[in-house]
Write a structure and sequence with these properties.
With 291 residues, the chain is α/β, with parallel strands linked by helices. Helix content is 34%, strand content 17%. The strands form two sheets. It has a seven-stranded parallel sheet with strand order 8-7-6-9-10-11-12, with helices on both faces. Helix 4 (88-104) packs across helix 6 (140-151).
Length: 291
């Protein structure tokens, strides 16, 4: 079996996969590859598949499959899977880091002090305690966020059209109801035709004034221009994001220059521990596939 690792995985993974066959990270070997490992950087589309005539299995290390054309894979008899559980803790911790840092004014305080300032009286904090968190999506990552938010004394609501009950959140009947009640909104949805641009001017108008939005799901689930405008007028207090329409985002992305945007370069699933867990799932998937 020939395995191609196209994107960044745990450094020990090639050695672990060597028991299954020949392992390469050279894209020039795509034509011989039977198994392709990707994360967010590589897109599996008909053009790539045309260059991979021997491909039998695509593994997307992480959550979501929006960079994999599953229909094109199926038409060629190629199995396409991901590792949905591995990243839950890592991404949830990133969501919580943004959720804590924004009302605590940590980033502004840090930058001010680096400039020689001491804005003790200028920066006013707010707390998460007794605030309402609204989770858009109630899957593995959102569940881990809900558990952690409860530890901060937050009330946790969630909306997910595919989930009726949840052990760690109170499910609400509609997205409109969720955003109207939330002080903080945390986004955990895959990118689909229904979720693309879902946070737009119409939905933002139904949110509380001064809401904080955190996005560790998918960048394209936000209508960038609409959100940038809401930030400018203060309807949205702040937007904390680890995800973008592309990695990296285009230079003209409106959110890069909008006020009160707190950003990171898609680091949510990049913890050392998570890469190890992804590796565990990859080994198990290939082992079962080979068997």
């Amino acid at each position: 079996m020939k395995i191609l690792i196209a994107d960044a995985f745990d450094a020990k993974l090639p050695e672990r996969l060597a028991v299954f066959g020949e392992v390469s990270s050279d894209m020039a070997t795509l034509g011989e590859a039977e198994v392709l490992l990707i994360r967010s950087k590589t897109t599996v589309n008909p053009e790539l598949l045309a260059k991979a005539p021997k491909l039998k299995l695509v593994i997307r290390g992480g959550v979501g499959m929006d960079n994999v054309d599953k229909k094109a894979c199926a038409e060629k008899g190629i199995k396409a899977v991901n590792t949905p559980k591995a990243s839950s803790v890592s991404v949830a911790e990133m969501a919580m880091a943004l959720m804590v840092a924004i009302p605590a004014r940590l980033i502004e305080a840090h930058m001010a002090m680096k400039e020689g300032k001491f804005p003790k009286s200028e920066l006013k904090r707010t707390e998460l305690f007794k605030k309402t968190l609204g989770l858009i999506g109630a899957g593995n990552i959102a569940t881990e966020v809900a558990k952690r938010a409860a530890g901060f004394g937050m009330k946790v609501l969630a909306y997910d059209p595919f989930v009726k009950t949840h052990p760690d959140a109170e499910m609400v009947g509609s997205l409109d109801e969720l955003v109207s009640k939330a002080d903080v909104i945390s986004m955990h949805t895959p990118l689909t035709d229904d979720t693309r641009g879902m946070v737009n001017a119409a939905l933002i108008a139904k949110m509380k004034d001064g809401v904080i939005i955190v996005n560790t799901g998918r960048g394209k689930c936000v209508a960038e221009a609409d959100l940038a405008e809401a930030l400018k007028i203060g309807k949205v207090r702040a937007y904390g994001t680890d995800v973008w329409p592309s990695d990296p985002p285009p230079a003209d992305c409106p959110l890069l220059s909008a006020p009160n945007v707190f950003m990171s370069p898609h680091l949510g699933a990049s913890s050392k521990e998570n890469l190890g867990r992804i590796g565990d799932e990859v080994v198990a998937i290939i082992g079962a596939f080979k068997a």
